[in-house]
# Entry
Amino acid sequence: MTSLAGVGPGDAWRRVSLEGVWEEPELLLQSRTWNGRAGFDVLASFRPSGAAVSVLVNRGWVEPARSAPDARPTPPAALEGVVRFPSEPGPLAADNDPARGIWFHIDPEAVAAHLGRPLLPFYVQAAPAAGAPDWPRARPPEPRFRNDHLQYALTWFALAGAVAILYLVWRRRAGREGPR
# Structure
């Protein structure tokens, strides 16, 4: 079992194994997909054995038919995953609405205020485990960075080419008209 004591920003992606108790209620992160299918990510607080404070856990994805807690098996008392720190939502991201139970991004501070109990300032992304229930479906906890370099390069070269063509057209017209 791994302790969460002393975890800081430098510990992002650190693997942890915890034993403890799941706390209710679960929350659903809206607008999540799995292989092109719409659904939710299940968030739950987990109190590790001997800890004074709980940690938020992203248990994984569920389809809408399994979004109610009673539509899924009880989670095991052991948990494996990686430590994650929430990222800032983008400028066009929808705001969480805790009063209506609508969550679009992970915010441990807002979840703690909503639940009325303290939570650690990070969360654990659950890892798929052998023998774990099928629902929710935990994602493999691997960093996936977007690589849009080719797209950006093609865009900028296309813009440069368009400007070059416009310049040549302008020079040709300016040469026909002569000086004014």
The longest strand covers residues 15-34.
